[in-house]
Amino acid sequence: MRKVSFYTLGCKLNFAETSSIAKIFQSQQFLVVDFEEPSDICVINTCSVTENADKECKSIVKRALQKNPNCKVIVIGCYAQLKPQEILNIQGVKLVLGTNEKFKIIDYLKYLDDEESKAFYSDIENAYHFNASFSLGERTRTFLKIQDGCDYTCSYCTIPLARGESRSDTLEGILKNVHQILEKGIKEIVLTGVNVGDVGFTEIPEQGRKKRSFTLLQLLEEVEKIDTEFRLRISSIEPNLLSDEIIELSANSRHIMPHFHIPLQSGSNTILAKMQRRYKRELYAQRVEKIKSLMPDACIGVDVIVGFPGETDELFNETLEFLKGLDVSYFHVFTYSERKNTLAEQLSDKVPMHIRKERNAILRQLSQKKQHYFYQQNIGKTRKVLWEDTEKNGMMYGWTDNYIRVSRTYNENWCGKISEVRLVGWGENGIILGEDSIASPDSMKVLNEIN
Ligand code: SF4
Q1: What fold characterizes domain 3-122?
Q2: Secondary-structure breakdown of the chain: helix, strand, coil percentages, each rounded to the nearest 5
Q3: What does CATH list as the number for 382-450?
Q4: Average pLDDT, integer, range 364-368
């Protein structure tokens, strides 16, 4: 039996797509093996957002060939769509497939025996077709791809160039996948895409065009009707797409968790305009207030970019002060870096790299404080936790509904189940201890460090 291995870089969408491509190989009698094991074919699913996509890709190709010099390396993903020729120059790469081609990977395997390496990619404007995917691997949680591409024009972003226009699965297709996932006993589904809030554009067959068929709110209302115990999270949603109706539905939902990840990117309206984002900071603050008024214990995560061109000390301070005043729980902080073929690349007033890094450190510190405060507020409360099945040093781990990492003494009977647990204090590495767990001697140390 021929063996294939995979390596995935980047976002949850890539992980979901790797799982689908693995299934395609399995249907063709391939055995999927771990990346560290020898294989006949190794597929590397790349990302263009990571700062050193080229270096990362090269090093993974090298690793794949070290373990098995005869394995044929195929590179797919966003970086493959954006820089196919650059990837072809990496020693050992046999095949490069673009966004439109990656799901037809089996059709291209015949080129692996050619002496010359080859790249197949088409214009991203032609990427109308949607390929549904969901990740496998974790037994309690799956990332379900419901949407791909983006119609927004944020000035720093290459994703629309790599993934094309916004398009999604049909409403029926998504619900079918949800049922299929639930039948496997998986208890948590994370709705994933590039711009999840914009879900609902479906392909008009044979016409190469799309139409809006449904909205995220309609999808959530349909999911709400499902009568099985499970959890639903939205991986990320643009603030301008997170409507009052979605927040209200979430507040009264059996399935949607009180956890939102909302990209802010900057707390300065001047920078938001330069980024070509579709909202002002006032709208963002309103969204947070609305969530917290209906779900006081909700967890809210924020994406922020520091060092965007034109971000003076004063404008950075606007972001810093705005974030300090927001009732949010953690940030993902990104240091701006120039991307080819973006509008932002042409902007003047670049911020020196050392200042970008300093600002990143400042916001990360603030994020730690926010997260510590959020966790601390939940100590003493009882929350529902979905327990994973791995055991480490006698402990088991899970996430609460409002996205707090919790551990407790391992109990096999709890694996894969949702149970109510009282949060009793701090454990190792900033993880919260659930009742029935042995308090670690490091608890106080962790607390002191965070303070
Ligand atoms: S919303 Fe903006 S940042 Fe997000 S994928 Fe679309 S263009 Fe990129």
Answers
A1: Rossmann fold (3.40.50)
A2: 40, 25, 35
A3: 2.40.50
A4: 98
